[in-house]
Structures are given as structure tokens and as C-alpha cells.
Design a protein that fits this description.
CATH topology of the largest domain: Dna Topoisomerase Vi A Subunit, Chain: A, domain 2
CATH architecture of the largest domain: 3-Layer(aba) Sandwich
Number of domains: 3
Structural class: alpha+beta
Strand content: 25-35%
Helix content: 25-40%
CATH class of the largest domain: Alpha Beta
Largest sheet: 5 strands, antiparallel
Length: 286
């Protein structure tokens, strides 16, 4: 079996054969739980036959990439797994050791500078975020990850979005993560109106959508729905609240909680991009 042949195997068929069914489907996007988690964090695009993991591994790609990640294999080993794909006698076991390695690694920021790395600029442009907008809010970070078990150190770089306590959300084509302390990011403009975004890619996508480089209202980026506790004390200060959270179970639940506390809040994600998971996915579809 060649790599081209292996990548023609549908990811959803492979997962089904492996005993893994989607948690839910939205159009051509199938969401899976590939680790012990309440909210599914791995999405498969059935149209392109690709996947992306948002749960900490930051991996993504085609069928071979998925098998490499799930079975902790190199490319040739993945081909061997896929060669016996039709005769798999029992569900394949997801290698928890890989998740453990990620969880038991130390991430250290070594250097942060203004956005200029062409690979990162191209990554943002692939997400439909132009440089003229990105440079206003995004920096680039050079960081290392040390495996606590082996002591092995690997160096990486990523776009970096700073929060109110100088922690960073890190993104690249191959990685999604962040550093402590974890909290919200506030972009102050006025004291009466506020926009609330779940992630910074959604905030940047909104700037693209509204054709501006700066918001007309105070903006708060949660950076994670787990940071919602930092928002609750602030919301009573605003008479107008626009919510741009994800259209997934966690985002919908968090939106409902905010509206219950603050009835003036408006769920803009259900108005602007009801058929898409988030603002960036919507922008990329235009």
C-alpha cells in the first residue's frame, strides 16, 4: 500500500472500524472524543478527508497522520496498520501514552517578538487573517517543550496572543496550546458595551468580517470557556453585550449561562454564523 492509497481510506470509516463513533455531526464535520473528555475535541472533515485535534495534541492531517498519532507510529508503521485495515479483528486501542507525554511535558517561552515570521504569517493568512490585522494583536513566541520522563527538549515557534496576566495562547499549523497564567484578554474601548469572544481567532475573524482593525466596543476574549468566571464580575458594568462563542455544546452552554445572568446579552454567533462552529470557520467559508 502506498501513502496515496492509504490516505484515500476515509477517516470516518477507519474510526468506525476501530470502534469509535462521532459524538455529533454538523454538516461535513464529525466531532469525536478520542480521549477521556466530556466535550469532543477532534473534528473530521469528511469532504476533505482530514482531521484536526483541538484537545492538546494539536495534530492534524490525513488518514496516515491520524494513524501515526493514534497508534504512536511513524509513517511506515501507519501503513502497516492501514494495510490490515479491512481485517482488524477488534477495536484499535488509542495510545494513552501519547496523551500522557503531552500532559507531563513542560512548556517554556524563551523569546517573544513582533510578528514577522513568514511561516506564521502564512499560517494566519491560511485562516483568512491578513497581516495588517494580525500585527495589531499577535506576537510570535519561540518556546521549548521538555519531556519530564526523558528530559528531551524540543524547540518550536507559534503565533502568540497575550492575556491580561502576560500568559499566552499559542497557535501554529501543528500546535494549539497556551502558557500560565491562563485568563481573559481585555481590549478596552468604552465602559457601556462589550463584545465577548471564545478565542482570539474568532476575534480576529470578526475584525475581518466587519472590515476594521480595531473594535468599536470593549472586547473580551475568554481564551477558554473555563475562564468564564473572570467575566461574570465584569458583565454588570455593560448595558450592551454581544456574544460570539462557538456553536458547539460547550459554547452553547456557556452562552446560555451568560444570558441567564445578563438578559441584555445577545447571541451573535446564532445570528451571524449559525451553520458554522465558530467565526473563523465562517470566515474561511466566504
Amino acid at each position: 500500500m502506498t501513502f496515496a492509497e492509504a490516505n484515500k481510506i476515509k477517516i470516518v470509516d477507519f474510526l468506525t472500524k476501530s470502534g469509535i463513533e462521532p459524538a455529533f455531526k454538523k454538516g461535513n464535520k464529525h466531532w469525536y472524543r478520542l480521549r477521556n473528555e466530556n466535550t469532543p475535541s477532534c473534528v473530521v472533515d469528511t469532504e476533505n478527508n482530514t482531521y484536526h485535534d483541538f484537545g492538546g495534541g494539536g495534530s492534524g492531517g490525513g488518514t496516515v497522520d491520524l494513524v501515526c498519532w493514534m497508534e504512536n507510529q511513524k509513517a511506515f508503521g501507519a501503513l502497516l496498520v492501514l494495510s490490515g485495515y479491512k481485517n482488524i479483528p477488534q477495536p484499535l486501542s488509542f495510545k494513552r501514552e501519547k496523551v500522557k507525554v503531552i500532559a507531563e511535558s513542560i512548556l517554556k517561552i524563551n523569546h517573544v517578538q513582533s510578528l514577522q515570521n513568514q511561516a506564521l504569517i502564512q499560517y494566519l493568512e491560511s485562516r483568512k487573517i491578513p497581516f495588517k490585522i494580525a500585527k495589531q494583536y499577535i506576537e510570535e513566541a519561540y518556546y521549548s517543550i521538555t519531556n519530564k520522563d526523558t528530559g528531551e527538549v524540543k524547540n518550536y515557534f507559534a503565533v502568540a496572543f497575550r492575556n491580561d496576566e502576560n500568559g499566552f495562547e499559542l497557535r501554529s499549523k501543528y500546535f494549539k496550546g497556551g502558557t500560565s497564567p491562563k485568563t481573559i484578554t481585555t481590549i478596552p474601548v468604552n465602559l457601556k458595551s462589550v463584545n465577548v469572544f471564545e478565542g482570539f481567532m474568532d476575534y480576529l475573524s470578526a475584525l475581518v468580517y466587519y472590515k476594521t482593525i480595531s473594535p468599536a466596543m470593549t472586547t473580551i476574549v475568554l481564551n477558554s470557556t473555563s475562564n468564564i468566571r473572570h467575566l461574570y464580575d465584569l458583565l454588570p458594568n455593560f448595558s450592551k453585550i454581544n456574544l460570539y462563542l462557538d456553536n458547539d455544546p460547550t459554547g452553547i452552554k456557556t452562552t446560555s449561562e451568560i444570558i441567564c445572568r445578563c438578559p441584555v446579552a445577545v447571541n451573535q454567533s446564532a445570528i451571524i454564523y449559525p451553520e458554522f462552529k465558530d467565526f473563523n470557520e465562517f470566515i474561511m467559508s466566504l
